[in-house]
Write a structure and sequence with these properties.
single chain, 227 residues, mainly alpha, Serine Threonine Protein Phosphatase 5, Tetratricopeptide repeat, 2 domains, two-stranded antiparallel ribbon, 12 helices, disordered N terminus
């Protein structure tokens, strides 16, 4: 069973390429190979579905994901609400519902659901970064940075996860509206590491590297990587 969480944050960036960066940053396929979502790689996410208390929960969740994919977020939320009533400890339901809340621009509720995911299943790394991105979107840069920092600190053996978090942290440090959080040299180090860990295949991370070069005043390199 594959479960996708897609949070659209295109409002955050102006250019088409940076919209792509945003989309790539928050798309994860659980139980797949793109990004490990749990700290314990020996515990695949698909096991969580097998542990749900009610067989109908998985079916309801899939219907909710399908509805969300079609843009019917309110019906999707209602389905997730009903499934959570049946099994309030099923963390994938909260993760899915947080995506719906993001689309509905109910960011505080999305954060609450991500908090629940992390309480029920502390090893769900994706939730930590998504929460950081929400905090950043809401202007709570200290909490955003704390989530990125923790993600980077616990993923030394998970290079794709580490790159995912480093990219988020680099973007904040290179572009934050609050100048006190910007740090071009640290942003550059994170962005280079993220690109290297992903063999320079992630356009989103290369965009972040361009922004980091611009922040340190190296506009020639910024233009080179943006192209």
């Amino acid at each position: 069973m594959i479960f996708c969480l897609v949070a659209l944050w295109s409002q955050k960036y102006n250019s088409a390429r940076l919209k792509t960066k945003c989309l790539l940053s928050v798309i994860a396929v659980l139980a797949g190979n793109a990004i490990q979502t749990e700290a314990d790689e020996a515990s695949p996410t698909r096991q969580a579905f097998a542990q749900l208390n009610y067989q109908s929960v998985g079916t309801t969740m899939n219907k909710g994901v399908e509805l969300a994919g079609k843009g019917d977020y309110e019906k999707a939320r209602q389905l997730f609400d009903a499934a959570i009533d049946q099994d309030p400890k099923a963390w994938p339901l909260y993760l899915n519902r947080s995506n719906v809340f993001v689309h509905q621009r109910k960011f505080d509720l999305a954060i609450q659901d991500l908090n629940t995911v992390l309480r029920l299943k502390p090893g769900i790394l994706l939730a930590q970064v998504l929460r950081g991105m929400l905090y950043e979107h809401l202007g709570d840069y200290s909490r955003a940075l704390a989530d990125y920092d923790r993600m980077v600190s616990i993923t030394s053996s998970l290079p794709l996860n580490r790159a995912f978090a480093q990219n988020g942290r680099a973007w904040l440090r290179a572009t934050c509206p609050d100048a006190s959080f910007r740090n071009g040299s640290l942003a550059l180090a994170d962005a280079k590491s993220a690109c290297s860990e992903t063999s320079w295949r992630e356009v989103a991370y290369i965009d972040t590297l361009a922004a980091a070069h611009a922040e340190v005043g190296d506009f020639d390199s910024a233009i080179q990587f943006e192209q």
